[in-house]
Task: structure prediction
Amino acid sequence: MSDGRVVMITGAAGALGRAVAQAFAATGARLVLLDLEERALAARFGGDDERFLLVAANLGDGNAVVAAVQKALARWGRIDVLCNIAGGFHMGEAVHETSDEAFRRMIELNAGSVLRTARAVVPAMLKQGSGKIVSVAAMGGLSGGATMAAYSASKSAVVRLTESMALELRDKNINVNCVLPSTIDTEANRASMPKADFARWVEPAALADVILFLASDAARALNGAAIPVVGRV
Result:
């Protein structure tokens, strides 16, 4: 699959974002790589590849997201795939101990970012008559867990946004799906859980392969799906 599609990836400088970018780059895709800091993007991807458009954008700012999409459209005229990789994790408090700030932060990072990219990208996909959207939810979004209610609620919201968009866009040639990873094998997760069996976790490259599949024509019959990607956890 080397068709020069334009793929927008949020959270591109993170471990999973980099793996997803590498997977799409190997297919010949043109990449719109978003993250909070341009310096982080430049450190990960450099600035010499003409297929890469590096865009610093705060996904909490709807205007910044729109501006990022406009840059992509000005350069390539379309966005074929949107990969919502950006997000965050937090746990530690019981529900009755969770602050408004902690709850809002999880909702904004994980669900708000998906909402704002949808507002900015879907109109372009409707205009061009096609598109694929793949978001990263989590297995933790399927049920509540002790001391992680804010995170679980925010990832559940990603699943519900996916299902709603899939129904809204299914007759517009736009497929919307999400993945449900368990623990991803990243440096940050290893540092926070040093006694865990890392070999049982999901490798970023393996999760990127699933995302690549969902963005391909081979997944054309999938719409509104939430795909578990759990390794051996």
Notes: The helical segments are 15-25, 38-45, 62-76, 100-128, 149-169, 187-192, 204-214. The longest helix spans residues 100-128. The domain at 6-229 is CATH 3.40.50.720 (Rossmann fold).
